[in-house]
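Hello,

Our lab assistant flagged a job as stuck in the queue for most of the afternoon. It eventually completed. Since we weren't sure the result was trustworthy after the delay, we are filing this so someone can double-check. Below is the sequence as submitted and the structure that was eventually returned. Let us know if re-running is recommended.
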Amino acid sequence: MIPNLLLLWLTADRHARGRPLRLRQWPLGLLRRVIVTAAQVMFYLAVARIVYATEATIVYLMSLFTTAFSVPLLGNRVGAMRWLAVLIGFAGVATVMSPGADSFSPVALLPLGAAVGYGLITVMVKLFDDDAPSPLINLYSSIAALVGVVLFCLATGGFSPIRAWTDIAWIGAMGVFGCAW
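-- returned structure --
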């Protein structure tokens, strides 16, 4: 699926020479890629160490961090009503997910760090030039996150052997649906 999207990107009708695969603001792209990788590593480390309801609830703080980062980085004004809306939304998530108060521990800082990273990268997209396409920015981030996580797994021995073809099918389905979502 990704090769088809890449081919479509390069041969789009609107551009006679195709679309470039480079970003003019590559230092910003590099910083965003580092943050994506760190956030992904923190998220997946937390999956194995704390109850999923607790982790998911903490990661949903991303909207709070996105709102907070938009003030200094983008110069947005966030009024009391918008802050209240963000807090009510998070309270709703916390109510539905019902994390246990006893499950908060120092390991809970991992999904909190992931939420900070996800909030920051969401705001950083607006710092790119208007002609920098979102798919290209996301392609750079995805490739960097993949490289970072593979290096992390190689360094920590975090790979598990694939024991059945059905596992490969599930992994492939997650990739397809994750890309399409």
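-- support follow-up --
The delay was a queue issue, not a problem with the job. The result is valid. The two ends are 13 Å apart (CA to CA). The chain has one domain: 23-159.
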